[in-house]
Amino acid sequence: MEPNMMLHAAQAVAAIGLLGTVLGVVLGVAARYLSAPVDDRAEAVVAILPGSNCAQCGFAGCKQAAAAIVEGRAAPNVCPPGGASTAQRVAELIGVRLAVDGADTALPTVAWVDEERCIGCTRCIRKCASDAIVGAIKQMHTVLPEACYACGLCEIECPTKAIVMKPVMPTLATWHWPKPASKRPVATG
Amino acid sequence: MSTLANRAGPFTHTVNSVTRTMVWVIAALVPATAYGLWLYGWPAVMLFAITLGSALASEAVMLALLGQPVRTRLFDGSALLTGWLLAMSLPPWAPWWIGVLGSLTAIVLGKHLFGGLGQNMFNPAMVARVLLLISFPVQLTMWVAPAPLGGDAAPSFSQALAYVSARTPVPDHMSAATALGTLKTELSRGVSVAQSSAQLPPPRQLAIGNESGSMGETSAGLLLAGGLLLLALGIISWHIPVALLGTLGALAALSHALDPVRFASMPIHLLSGAAVLGAFFIATDYVTSPVSRSGQLLFGAGIGALTWVIRALGGYPEGLAFAVVLMNALVPLIDRGLRPRVFGRSRRGKSLQARTQPRIHI
Amino acid sequence: MLFQVRGGVKLSYRKELSSESPIVRMPTPKRVCVPLQQHVGSPAEPVVEVGQWVGKGQLIGRAGRGISANVHASTSGTVIAIEDRMAPHPSGLTQPTVVIEADGKDRWAELAQPVTADFPLPVTPKELSERVAAAGIVGLGGAAFPSAVKLDMRYKHSIDTLVINGAECEPYITCDDRLMREAASEVIDGVRIMAYALAVQHVIIAIEANKPKAVKAMREAAKVDHSIRVVTVPTRFPMGSAQHLLLAVTGRETPADKRTAEVGAVVHNVATARAVSSAIRRGEPLISRVVTVSGFGVREPANVEVPLGTSVEDLLAFCGGLHPVPTLLIGGGPMMGATLPSVHAPVVKGTCGVLALTASEINDGPQSPCIRCGKCVTACPAGLVPVEMAQLIRRGDLQGAKAIGSQDCIACGSCSFICPSHIPLAHYFSFANGKLGDLDRDARRQDRIRSLIQARNERTAREAEIKKAASAARKAAKAAAAALATAAATADATEATSSLLEEST
Fold first, then answer.
1. ipTM of this predicted complex?
2. Where in the sequence of chain A do the CATH 3.30.70.20 domains occur?
3. Contact A189 B7 (CB under 8 A)
């Protein structure tokens, strides 16, 4: 190769190389100092979750579940007692779009004490994270439905299987039309 | 008690349907098409049949491949209309494979690969025309002088077959440039527009359509009649045609007034080429035009403006196909930006402030 | 001079099926099931007991807390049950209902003192509003909003206009039309009473142009009061929407999420006006209403004055029964009405019509893909973009649909009506709004429960702290006692040793 050409080639390589290095450094600095703080998001997610560490999601507690959600290891709707609204809020927070599935017709549930079987041992009362069960030793226990978010711990705890989860039926005030059926889910407008 | 029990209202419906709409649009096209077919003779008829046939065939194949109900969807009129509009915009004596390739492009690429009916972003017929024009510029600019059926110059059936099957090329004495084509080539040779306009057919003839051009776009008069029928039926609204022709006409008139040497007059622009066909039949395609009225005005104006720009300042003599496709790309943006004002809210979306002195005239 | 109103659709009205049938009074049925909630707001509380005899017009349910309305017995008889019975609601759900077995005598209970004086009335507006509330009058156009609350709007807003809604824009329904033709003077009397109660300057009665005879009758009756103007509005659905009607006749656009009172106007239905007149002039509470029974599926379409609580079955039997067997039974009009769960559902204050529709009238068709024709955008009277909202809802993005206005939807159904692809647009929006309401309620409940959980966590932590402190204190006390004991023991030992040493020396 001619010396002139070699010089040109060297200049070109140097120029591109320098540009690449500079840009790479800029990107690296940006990635480090301008990225969204992940820690805050985990805390924000914890604030949305119920916070009772019932472990229905499969993680040890709400803090661990929040960390997993933020890192992408768990879906935003991983918390069953949190319900659809919690899933939506978490999804909004971490910027994931969670489709509201109209076909999800499973009714929300609350715990219910079968008075025939309850022996008044208060084990469930001590376990309930939201103080939804009222009662005392040797007294009948009962669940306050507006405080129960169906974590299921009482059902597991009860020695006589007196607690079951019952679905909450819609009333005239809460009923609404289900999503219309789309004949072909593929060819939508 | 009822089979329809599990749905919300309303429990009455207009008689209008997708098929009814397509049928009327096709009906509105029939006069201009018939005239064009008569004007250009057997080769045009054959090309028309081939184009429509390939459109229907490719639609059937795609529907079957995609698992959609073939019988109902094939005859809803949409594929037929696409093929029809494409045929109208082709040179009347083009070889058969132009028609087939065009239809295939329009239906497969322009419609189904985007998701099928209602999903395409670009007008399928225009996509096909643009693709053909860029890939096969010679065939797509091979215009012929009118050779009416039954007349002396008309080719016989067998001759027509020969042209269409590309066994024999179209003889030179039959070919003729379109009005816009003439203007452009003369301009490039240094002849002013004013001079070459004199050689063109007068506006009355341009309106009737006895001149060279695409199979269906010559008769501005018949196309206008069809367009007015659609307006009267409420199938299209006036916004797009008026905006398109208005902008095109205004720019033409303005430019011609400023520089008659370079720019053609308004009647020539409005009456030649695909202006009227585009305004009433192509740009008004539901799927690829904006849904709001104000959006439609902007859309029509954009097409009119771009058409004039390409015709007057660009390299192609006719720019409607490009203009339509370019504006199609902007439709999602137009739809997002030009939504109607919600009742009870300002344009920004906030609840209206109740004025202290509300007017009352009664 | 009318103002422009956007959107809306032209319908096939089919009013001729019943428009020439004069109002007939239906004989009292054997049994009436009167729901305790026939109005917007909280349900009424029962004030009668099972086994009690009630007179016609006797109070059986007292208005609940907040916005509510009284409920009265529509005929005399014995209360045989107060229990959950089927509601006239498409869900088929039940609601608390007072079931009265009619004694056939139709005897009136003691009624309120009538006011027979001419205008100006010798009662205060406040008293008028109280009488209207006592009579249990709610909006009879279908919205069933307690009318007394509307009359009391004058205390919260400055009201200068009363608009009377005689539009009746739904197909088939002709009850208001007949009422205006046959009882125009009663309607006008009710209008004047309400105008006096509201102390308004302008009174406008708006009637759609497809009811020329009603316009004539009302104009004639309105001559008695020169401040009342009768105007004709274009026949276009949904002209009867209160906010759109107001815009058309006064040019005032009601701000979103607010009532018409915000722009100085109150809108009442013509039948409501007549009910007010009955309540004030004769002391009669709201115990019956005119219902249009129509559709190709009913033998003898008619406009019937029905005692509230009559079952749809009895009403249909009065109209010759169903023939041919219809595809659908609707309560209300075909655009905004809903399917009746069965013929055992009762007629309530908001039931303006019972329609038996055949498949040809409904004109349903298979759904096909959206072709983006934009007709729904043109038709929407609320200025929304149904095509875009439905697309978002289909994909599950309800918040996106809300952001472009799905909660401003008035559920008129114009979009579904006009869609050439038969896409159930209005259904999508009512689903979305219902689901968003669900999510809101759920979110608030979760918030409350989370604070309960937090409170419990704090309490447990505090208890643990106290326990720890207590056990630490106990330990310290033990240690102190032990130290004291050892100190004492050491002291004893030292003493013993020292005394021993002393003795030895």
1. 0.86
2. 109-167
3. no
